[in-house]
């Protein structure tokens, strides 16, 4: 399936992406993830101030078909949640890498980024899963 | 993705050509969606949508005693059907439980078509065969034919135009007509499972793809099982395995309108009478979640404060209302329209309001 996987982002096997802006990690779900879920209708997001460890569940994405937990690819403190899109969740389907970002985390250990997947590596993960 | 162990309808290749997302449904490789469940469901409400429902079983019964057979096995009154009329009915077991919900088409005095659910097809055929007198022939026409639901406010016009038969527009709900569609002998029935006007058509398997493609070209939006489920929940229609099964009687399911207790004896009638006389402890109701985006789903517990009062049987994010709607069996003291209840959705409690299930569509 021809999913959009921008080369400038890092990815988790669990289908989250990370965009690094200084010590802030902007996190969302991949195009492949939103496409697999289908129409997203509900987003549960953490409040600012929550401390996350790498791999922690920080929320859930619910589509018409299914519910999926979302995991933090990095450790740190949530500095912002994209709560403005909770009533217009289709933005995650339409723009998973732009308006559909989910949280911003102030990273406590930037070296964790090294263990994430490149776009190329993630493309293989997504491909292997198909639908 | 396609699983070779699954059954395929005559429209399987058409679904793959449309890049449908396929799922295993009752052993069939079926499209769950083409472009998106919400978009497809809204297309049906606004115009016309197409559903491959060929996975449903189609059986033909003919011969002296066919009417008596159906009278004894089903709850509705077959004798009230004139040829070219259809009725919604139930196959019930001796305990009054629902074996399946079905549509019976009367072709002649002693000739019928019966449309049954895919998930129950073998069970139904076995059940009917057990009771079949020698004078009645049962033939399974499922693989020889395809069935397409054309649904939505524009559906009758699209079908009539393609069939070049304006008289189809005049068919009343649950009437059917056998006629020509692009050279193929077709049964056009004014029925559906979406809450919209439309037809369900039965066509020869070999003509199915051409007819499907012509309906697409005429503006029909291909819709998958996801949209079909959302639409039937909005319309308050039961689905076997959710609202009804072999242990639920028509009384609690709110289906007494298709049970004729005045007709001669049918399987389970005494039990249904008893349950009706005693009154059911639970009611099947609609629930809306107007302030929530969480999706209620089958099996979720329903509370009134700390009291468990029932369970969700089906739920969906309503494409028309833009919030969750559900059907649920609720203890009768809590089943009054307007009652405020809470649905446990994972760790959260979502606020819900009881509504008549027929009114889930209206705001």
Notable characteristics:
heterodimer, A: 131 residues, alpha+beta, OB fold (Dihydrolipoamide Acetyltransferase, E2P), 3 helices, 9 strands, 34% strand, globular, B: 363 residues, Gyrase A, domain 2, Alpha-Beta Plaits, Elongation Factor Tu (Ef-tu), domain 3, 3 domains, six-stranded mixed beta sheet, six-stranded antiparallel barrel, 19 strands, 20% helix
Overall spatial form of chain B: globular
How many β-strand stretches of chain B?
A: 19
Low-confidence segments of chain B: none
What would you call the shape of chain A?
Answer: globular
What's the tally of helices of chain A? 3
Text of the CATH class of chain A: Mainly Beta
CATH topology of chain A: OB fold (Dihydrolipoamide Acetyltransferase, E2P)
In CATH terms, what is the architecture of the largest domain in chain B?
Answer: 2-Layer Sandwich
Radius of gyration of chain A, whole Å: 13 Å
CATH topology of the largest domain in chain B: Gyrase A, domain 2
Specify the helix fraction band of chain B: 10-25%
Helical segment count of chain B: 8
Q: What structural class do helix, strand and pairing data of chain B support?
A: alpha+beta
Largest sheet of chain A: 6 strands, antiparallel
The fourth-level CATH homologous superfamily of the largest domain in chain B is: Probable tRNA modification gtpase trme, domain 1
